[in-house]
Structures are given as structure tokens and as C-alpha cells.
């Protein structure tokens, strides 16, 4: 792999290293006058161009002219449902024409439709659909993505989804991190009790493949007690627990997640002050998903309280066919700034370093020497233009492990 010189960017904007909380979220490291030198996929030096030019010549390095362009870390999308079959654009159109959720479900729509289509799809069909979506994501600056199962709700399809994630991870430059979400919903053909037993029986084999185990903890889905049992089992098998929590109701999921020492709680649209306080005393990442609030017209998570109370805030897409058909973390940043009172530097930290923390990734999410060279060269001189000039893709070049993709 040739070395890469990213020459003369107007600005290199990176969050601080570590899981960032409170005022430190706004304290970005903004360098001007430096270029970036990458060797073997790793940032080897950040220094004035004069100090790097000779080396670049000797190494016959590739040169990327970044004049008048800002460089930020590659975006980490730590919550997606990338893999599914079944286009639901018709349901979206029905909704815009006045149909209710119940109307759509009565015509066989909703999650059941996605589950059926995903069960029927072959592995190669699923992989091709996901690959096309992945291309869209990387074009918009996403260089690492967590991907959940959960549209199979039976062992054959859940394992098929895990295989698709593993194969795509091999074939595509974006790093994919697998999460088992068997407990996404209860299949129509089974009692909840039987399904929970089936999910738990899958865990030893799943743990060989998936890094995380997730549960949809919510009224009408899995209770905090049921979620706890599944996630405790998963942890004993070597997976890290995380939880879809507090999307529509506060029913005790946060308490269960704290007791489990989960790595993240995701959604949090309905979050009580005592729950925020509880989370602030932990290392649990608070993953907020503003695209869902936009798409479903539900409240946004209380990001200001989450940040000001000292929790670890994270932003992600929750890309999925039912509640957010968008892979754009640039749009997520804009929504956080415009609708959740998140400051621009905070928003950047939430989709880079803190998102990498939520996935327990090492040396990803910052622009520092010896860190993985996952970078986005923007089409603007100041990174703050990105959330401000919204609805546009501002990625001029996306670099994954030192290669322009
Ligand atoms: Zn989700």
C-alpha cells in the first residue's frame, strides 16, 4: 500500500481522545498549517508540509491536495439495521396520504413485512442490497458501521444475516461491527416465552460471530426483566450488552442497563431526569437517533440534559426501513444542532470519537499520530459549514485505513 500525503488542508478538526463528556465535548483540537502523512493505513505524522515533502518523495507517496478543505475523522455509525429486504416506499407514501400505522399493518405492512421479505431473500440478494446501501454511506463519510440482525426472528435467518455482515466486512472497505438483535420483536408464530428460550439457545453460537447483543426493551416488546436475562446470558458468552431503551416509554430499561453494565443505551427519546442522573455515573454511552424523531415525528432525545448532566453522548443514524431510511450522519449532525441544542463541535465528537467508544474500538474516531487513518476531506474550508449547509453531502474524499475509497 503506498503512503498518502494529505496536503495543506485548511483545517484538521478532531475531538479529544477518550470517552468525552461535558465541556470537553466542545474542546476540539483544531490544527491549521499542518498536513497529514499516512503509512500502512495509520496516521504517521501531522506536521507542516515542509517536514513531510521529502519523505513523500522518497516513499513515492500518493498526494491528495486538500487546499481550502477541512479534514475530520471518518464517521462512525454505531447503530444501524443495514441488512433487510423489502422496500417500504409504498408504506411511506400511504402515510403521507393520511394512512395510520394500524391501516398499514392491516395491509400486511410494518416490521412483519420486512421480516418476511428478509426470510425469503437469499444470502446473495441480502448482501447486494446491503452493499448498495454501504456505498451510499461511505460516499457520505461513514468509515465504520455497526450492523444489527433482527429481521429474521428465526435461527436460520438470523445466522444468514450474521454471515452477510461478516462477508461484506471482508469485501468492503468500511469496517462492519456485528450486533445480534434476535430479541427485536416476537415472531407471530411463537409465544414470547418460547421465543426468548430460542434466542437464549442461539447465544453460544452467535457469540462466535457477534461482538454485541442488543434487545428492544419497550412496552409491548421485551420487559426490563426479560431483557436482563437475555443480555446477562449474552455477556456470559462473551458478547457486550446494549439496549434499545426509552424510545416510547420509560419502563425501567435504564435501570436494567445500568445493572448489566451495558456498553450503550440507544434511543432515549423519553428519558426521565433521574435516569439521566443515573447514566451520568456510568460509562454507558447514550446513543441518540434524531433521524428517527424526524422520520416518525416523535420527540427528540433530550441531548442537552444528557450532555450537561455529564453522560457520554453519541449520535447515530438508526438506519432502518420503518423509522429512518437515511444513512447520512451529516444530516444527523444538522438535526442535533438544529433540533436538540447540540453545539457544532459536540455534534462532531458524537459521531466520531464517542461513537467509536460506544463500539469499544481502539484508535478510531480521532485524528492523532498512530491512529487508524479513517478521514473525511470536506468540500468546505471550515468543518462548521457541514451541519450548517445541510441536506448536502460535504464529503469530497473519504479515506479508509489510508486508502481513498
Ligand atoms: Zn434501532
Q: Which strand order spans the largest sheet, edge to edge or round the barrel? A: 8-9-10-11-12-13-14-15
Give average pLDDT, whole number. Answer: 96
Biggest sheet architecture: 8 strands, parallel
Computed CA radius of gyration, to the nearest angstrom: 21 Å
What is the CATH architecture descriptor of the largest domain?
Alpha-Beta Barrel
Sheet/helix structural class:
alpha/beta
Q: How much helix, percentage-wise, in residues?
A: 25-40%
Taken together, the total number of domains comes to 2
Proportion in β-strands: 15-25%
CATH hierarchy class name of the largest domain? Alpha Beta
- Stretches where pLDDT falls below 50 for ≥5 residues? none
- Individual helix count: 16
Distance between the termini: 13 Å
Structure description:
With 405 residues, the chain is of the alpha/beta class. It has an eight-stranded parallel β-sheet. The chain has two domains: 4-73 and 367-404, Urease, subunit C, domain 1 (Roll), CATH 2.30.40; 75-358, TIM Barrel. The chain is 38% helix and 21% strand. The protein has helices at residues 49-59, 89-96, 101-106, 111-120, 123-139, 155-171, 192-206, 224-236, 253-260, 273-280, 290-296, 303-308, 329-339, 344-350, 353-358, 385-388, and strands spanning 4-7, 11-14, 29-31, 35-39, 42-47, 62-65, 70-73, 75-77, 142-148, 175-183, 212-216, 240-245, 264-267, 285-288, 312-315, 375-378, 395-400, 403-404. The protein has 16 helices and 18 strands. Zinc ion binds at residues 79, 81, 244, 318, 320. The site of zinc ion (ZN) has 5 residues, from loops.
Amino acid at each position: 500500500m503506498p503512503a498518502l500525503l494529505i496536503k495543506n488542508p485548511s483545517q484538521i478538526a478532531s475531538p479529544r481522545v477518550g470517552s468525552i463528556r461535558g465541556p470537553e465535548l466542545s474542546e476540539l483540537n483544531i490544527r491549521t498549517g499542518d498536513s497529514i502523512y499516512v503509512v500502512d493505513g495509520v496516521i504517521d505524522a501531522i506536521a507542516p508540509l515542509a517536514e513531510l515533502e521529502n519523505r513523500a518523495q522518497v516513499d513515492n507517496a500518493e498526494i491528495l491536495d486538500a487546499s481550502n478543505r477541512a479534514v475530520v475523522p471518518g464517521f462512525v455509525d454505531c447503530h444501524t439495521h443495514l441488512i433487510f429486504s423489502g422496500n417500504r416506499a409504498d408504506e411511506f407514501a400511504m402515510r403521507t396520504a393520511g394512512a395510520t400505522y394500524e391501516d398499514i399493518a392491516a395491509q400486511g405492512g410494518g416490521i412483519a413485512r420486512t421480516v418476511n421479505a428478509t426470510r425469503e431473500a437469499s444470502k446473495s440478494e441480502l448482501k447486494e442490497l446491503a452493499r448498495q446501501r454501504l456505498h451510499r454511506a461511505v460516499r457520505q463519510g461513514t468509515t465504520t458501521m455497526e450492523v444489527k440482525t433482527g429481521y429474521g426472528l428465526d435461527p436460520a435467518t438470523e445466522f444468514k444475516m450474521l454471515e452477510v455482515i461478516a462477508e461484506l466486512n471482508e469485501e468492503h472497505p468500511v469496517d462492519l461491527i456485528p450486533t445480534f438483535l434476535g430479541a427485536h420483536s416476537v415472531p407471530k408464530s411463537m409465544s414470547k416465552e418460547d421465543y426468548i428460550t430460542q434466542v437464549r439457545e442461539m447465544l453460544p453460537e452467535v457469540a462466535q460471530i457477534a461482538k454485541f447483543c442488543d434487545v428492544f426493551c419497550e412496552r409491548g416488546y421485551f420487559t426490563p426483566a426479560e431483557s436482563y436475562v437475555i443480555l446477562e446470558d449474552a455477556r456470559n458468552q462473551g458478547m457486550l450488552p446494549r439496549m434499545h431503551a426509552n424510545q416510547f416509554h420509560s419502563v425501567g430499561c435504564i435501570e436494567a442497563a445500568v445493572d448489566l453494565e451495558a456498553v450503550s443505551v440507544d434511543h432515549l427519546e423519553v428519558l426521565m431526569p433521574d435516569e439521566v442522573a443515573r447514566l451520568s455515573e456510568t460509562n454507558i454511552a447514550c446513543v441518540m437517533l434524531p433521524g428517527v424523531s424526524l422520520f416518525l415525528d416523535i420527540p427528540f432525545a433530550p441531548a442537552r440534559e444528557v450532555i450537561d448532566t455529564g453522560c457520554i453522548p453519541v449520535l447515530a443514524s438508526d438506519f432502518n426501513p420503518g423509522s429512518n431510511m437515511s444513512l447520512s450522519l451529516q444530516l444527523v449532525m444538522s438535526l442535533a444542532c438544529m433540533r436538540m441544542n447540540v453545539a457544532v463541535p459536540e455534534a462532531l465528537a458524537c459521531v466520531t470519537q464517542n461513537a467509536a467508544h460506544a463500539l469499544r474500538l481502539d484508535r478510531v474516531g480521532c485524528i492523532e499520530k498512530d491512529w487508524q487513518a479513517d478521514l473525511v476531506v470536506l468540500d468546505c474550508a471550515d468543518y462548521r459549514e457541514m451541519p450548517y449547509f445541510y441536506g448536502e453531502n460535504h464529503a469530497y474524499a473519504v479515506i479508509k485505513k489510508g486508502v481513498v475509497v
